[in-house]
Every structure is written in C-alpha cells, then in structure tokens.
Amino acid sequence: MKLTFTASAWSLALLLAAGEASAQSVLKYVNPNIGTAHSRWFFYTPAAVPYGMAKLAPSTNGHYGNASGWEAVGYDTRQNSIEGFVHFHEWQVGGVSFMPTTGELRVKPGDLDGPATGYRSRFDRKNQVAEPGYYRVLLDDYGITAELTATKRVGFHRYTFPKNDQAHLILDIGNTQGESGEVTDASIRMVDATHVEGYVSTYPKYVKTYDPSGKVNMYFYGEISKAPASVGAFTAAGIQEKQNSATGKGAGLFLNYRTNAQEKIELKVGLSYTSIANAKANLQAEARSLTFEQARTAAQATWQRELSKIAVEGPDEQNKTKFYTGLFHALLGRGIASDVDGAYPKHGGQVGQLVASGSGPKPEFINTDAIWGGYWNLTQLWALSYPEWYGNYVNTELQLYRDKGWFGDGIANSEYISGVGTNFVGLAVAGAYQVGIRNYDVNLAYEAVRANELNYRNRAFGSGKMDVKAFTQYGYVPFKEEYKQYQGEWYKTDSTGSYFSNSHTLEYSYSAFAAAQMAKSLGKKADYERLIKLSNGWKAILNPQSKLMQPKLADGTFASNFKPFEPWRGFQEGNAMQYTFYVPQNPAGLIAALGRDKFNNRLDSIFTASAKTGFGGGKEIDAFAGVNAIYNHGNQPCLHISWLFNFSGQPWLTQKWTRQICDEFYGTEPIHGYGYGQDEDQGQLGSWYVITALGLFDVKGFTDARPIIELGSPIFSKSTIQLGNQKKLVIEAKNTSKQNLYVQSAELNGKPLANCWLYRDELMKGGKLVFTMGPQPNKTWGSKTPPPSAQ
C-alpha cells in the first residue's frame, strides 16, 4: 500500500497511522543527532519523508558556503545558534531559507561567533526535538518555537510567537546555502497577501568543475496562514521598505506581524526543480488541505512503514538505535527531483518529461551523490527490501544517458558532479539486472553499461573515467606523477593515464567484471570475453615481491619511492595497504597471488592494528582522518575487506571483525556516530551497518550472473525482513550477544547450511534462516567451500 499525501488520501494516512500505533514504534530508535559533528549537508534533515525533495532542517552555518565543494556544512552539534530553516538539501544543492524573528529587523544571518550581528538565534539542545519526519526547537533570542515537517515535495513550518509588535518572517532566498555554491540569480515576490513564489539559480563548485555549462535551479510556491501587516524586500544592496518583490543576489522578503502570546503562523511551501508552476502544482497535489499536524502524522506513518520493513528484536537498545538511525540515513540520503506530473530537470535549466518503460512502478528522477562504494551497502539494502529505489536510480541514470550520452556518477538536476572522477554506475546497473530489477529498457541499459566501460571518444569530462582509453590499451592505467598538479587542476586524469592510476585500475577491473557478467547473461559472448580479460587488470599492478599494489608507469616498470602507507599517490582517498585488497570480483585470484596464509595473516593483523584506532582515523574529527591508516572504515575503498575471510577459509574472522566494527566504529553520540566526523555519504555507512547487523553481504555487489549472499555474525536475536518481492524472511540468531558472536551452525528452512554463503535467489524465497551462536569460533563451519570466485 503506497501512501500519498493528497487531501483525498488523508483518511488513508489516518488508517495507516492507527494501524502502526498498535505495534511498537521503531521511530524511537532513530536519533538524527547521532554523528552531527562534521556532518554533510543532507545529513541532518529530520523534517522529511524517505527520498523526499522537501528536506527541511535547521542550519547553523549554511550561509558560510563550502569552499571545497564537499566538506561538512549545514548543522554541527558543536555550534549553538541557528541561522534559518532550509528547504533543499542534496549533494551540491541547497537553498531557500526561512527564519522567524522578533524585535529589531535584521536581514543578514550574522556570525557564528557573534549571533547578535544578524538574525540568527541561540538555542539550547535540551529544547530541541528531532524525529523522522518532524523537528522542533526553541529559538532563545526570540522566544519562538519553530516546528518543521514535510510531504514528498512540500515543506511545512509552524512558528509559535510570543506577544510582540515587531515579529518577522525572514525569507532569505538569494544567498549561498550549504554546498550550493554561488547564487547567480534569484527572485521572490508576494503573489497576494498570503502567497509567495520565487526561484534561485546556483552554480555549485562541482558543477563548475565537471559540467561547466550547467546550473541548478530551485523553485518554490508558498502559502502563509496569516497575512502580514506589511512587507519589505532586501538584496545584497540593502533594504527596500514597502516592496513586495526582490530579484538578484541576496534577494529576500521580510514579512512583519503583530503577534499575540502563543500565536501560531504556519507556512506550506511547494518545491520543484523545474518551475514555479510545478512547485504550485506539487503543493496542490500533496498538501492542498493538509494541516501541519496531519502532515506530521502522515510523514511519521510513512517512516514507520518504511523502517518497519526490517524489524529487529533483542535486548540491546543501543544496537537498535544504531540500526534504525543507519536505516533512516539510507532512506533519507537521495531525494526525488521530479514533479508529480513527471517533469524533471534537464541539463542547463531545461525541463524533461519522464516516460515509463519496462514493467513495475512509474519511476522518479533522483539527485544523487556518487555511487562510489554504494554497491557494498546502499544497492544491497535497496535490493533486499526497497527495490523501487534501486529501479529509480537505474531509470535516472538511463534518462541521463538518453539526454547526455553518458552516465553520471553523481548528479544534481542532471548536471555531472562526480567528485571522484570515476564512474561505477555501470556496475550498479548491472547489479540491478542480476537481482531481477528490470523496470527499464534492458537493451538500452546494456548499451550504456558497455559504453561506460569501453568507450572514450568524445567522452564528457563529468562522466568520469577519462582514462578508459589507457586502461583498455594497457590493461591497467599508467601512473602519471606529473599529474599531481596540472595547471591548477589536482589529480589530472586523461587518455594517457592518471595520478590515481592504481585505484582506477582496480576499480575499472571490478566494473569490467560486472559488465562482463551482464554481457554473459544477455548472450553477448564477444563482449564478455573482452570485458572479462580487462577484469584481471589488477594483476598488472601487483608487485610480486612486496605483494602490494604499486603504481606502474606506461613502460611497464613500477614507480620508484613507493611508500605503502602514503595516501593519494596512485590511490584516491587511500593507500596501498588498503587498496591491495580491492579485488572483490576475484577474491580467490587475489588469495592465490598473495598466498593463503600470507593473505590471512596480513588481513588479520590489519584489523588487530586498526582496532586500536576505532577502525578509522581515531578520534580526529575529519572525513579523511583515516586516509593514511592501515584500514579506514570511514571511507568507501575498505568497506568489503572484513568480509574477505569467508573466501580464505577463515569465516570466523569475518564474524569477529565485522561485529567489532559494528560495536566500535559506530556510536550513538553526536560526535561519535560514524567514526568521529567521518563521511556518511548519503547513507552508505548507515546501510553497511544495517546489512552487516543482519549478517548478510556480498563483496561483489550482486554483479555475479547468479549473485550470492555471504553470511556473517547477526547481531539481533530475531530480524523479520519484508523482502522486495513481498515474501518474508526471518533471521534468528540463537544465543547471540556481544560475547557470542561466532556462528556455530546455521540452517535455512530446516536444512543445515554447511557453507558461509548461499545463492541469493535461495534467500529471496523467504522463510527462516537460523544461526546458533557461541563465544568461541567453530572453525569447521563454513570453512571448507568458499563462495565462488568463478570468472
């Protein structure tokens, strides 16, 4: 049953809410404040629904912008004043900030170290409530209680004022917010006494770099419950009294009121990336007659339904908090960009119209950060219980391929914003095909997947993989030391090679494998043979003496001055110690190349050492804190490594280390949430916790022609999963506890499992998977027959 937010569907929302009320609510286990030190722009957006366009949240520092384009910005638990409540929160997308105030009119947000310099207000976190679908805070400087909630495309505000003859609503439109970059144009006007409309155009840093002719437009149409006594405007040039419109940089309006004690003023704001008319249509379709309370109830009923697709039981409340907060971030991370009528933003401010193809639900167009590493968390979670969102992801990328000729690893309103310069979209699409998600044109999908791996002529810079020609020519990407800095462009990549040559070689080898398996499934033998040969490119850069991946020059010699722990040189966001294990497509081949004993001893010693620093960068608050460590769970390249012991005959070490990572890397505090200030990347680390806590994983990201599931150490005594095919899977872990983390035996639907893996299609039939757990490893269980590494 799908919940929509039209007025006619309000009775449905009430029925759903009433049904959920009889069951134990999982919302109490979601704590949006976890990990809010050094968190990214999307991260703290509680007033939203899953995958919503409207993601309302308080901002402590959003107007400061983001000089690097990607760093933490928006809300930080270490800051104690709020400058506004912002509507749009996506990777490289942010804007439209509202703020209620009283007293002297101010139209600048002011400074963090001097709140009185602007309209920002101090607040006390004891007076703050953040829940899935709802946010509330008391603004101390004004005595105003602010509340936020949302439907998919409509943001709701409710402000409770004190008695005051100088009350204001500041509608700050034309200024930088979060990652949005420079504002190039803005407009806002009162349509009548209680309606406001406008837009803002921005030029984010990563659009400027990867898709320079692109732009990001945001539109809104708002309804206000009370007409203001007067209206004024402001721009970067200053205040214009008694004006009801403003245009250009710094544009905004101030609405003046006389309020009584406890008087409530509410706003409903329809959003769109295509036009003001569509923002208004979205508002009318989803929220025409909804009250704030009705919207909040419906939003929280939606969260209850979606989070409850995986119901976990057990005595450890802290683990439930980690689990459901991780799932919350996974379902929050990417947001729809299409309107209720299927309009979506195309390149350069154009508007397209989605056309459904294939079977299944009508797709939505979504904005997304890079899928880099997402096949070790997000796509596996989507495939398990949320296949409609995997389908939306694939359909979005195929629409981009139709429109622009290439996939885009990260996209903001159809603009390329990769950030990592590679492109794993083909791998993710191939994985979707292999798990049976096919609500798209399969032939077009394969064409695009193949092109992503093999084509380089006229390749768009923002589509990444600009060294595909070199990879297909040499079988590896040659290392270019001189490209560390090139005419001001860091870490250059072109048709002759890259400064990130080794990580690219390993990544392209893996994605070539995924494309090869899709080719094989579709009977394309010649393509399969070419791609499967490229999937072994990793062998070219493995130094047989050191048994480490080492940068290699175009002449076939290894680069000198090699330092295994040195980050960046040859390896994006990592080092040789981390990346040497990056052969997920062929673990058996890597184990044979290193020697099984050496492989196991080295890998086990890596985790023993990294446990001392919390499996990341220790307590240093920085996204790259672990980039030069021996293992770094705070970043994508390492996320499959702890599962490799299943392939090397020691599955008990996968059980040990995955459990310890869950216990120690993940926390339940604002600062210790995902490591210490490490990068959640739109729900990836949260998704990893969810699937690992269930004891289910695939290092290949479901790219095998017949995908598998590896088995780990389930944390919860019972997990009931609503599978994407509408069947139910129950996972029982008898005797599981912090000490009883080792699998003694397992069975599926009453039949003993001798292996630490099974084929995914067997699992997706549903039924009951039972583990018996104990405090010591059973070294005979699951160690005889490793998961397949067939090429």
From TrEMBL:
Q: Does the keyword Kinase apply?
A: no
Q: Which GO terms describe its cellular component?
A: cytosol
MF terms in GO = carbohydrate binding; peptide-N4-(N-acetyl-beta-glucosaminyl)asparagine amidase activity
Annotated ranges, domain Glycosyl hydrolase family 92 N-terminal: 29-272
The positions making up the signal sequence are 1-23
One Gene Ontology BP term is: glycoprotein catabolic process
Glycosyl hydrolase family domain span: 278-775
Protein name, entry field: Glycoside hydrolase family 92 protein
Tell me what organism the protein belongs to: Hymenobacter fodinae
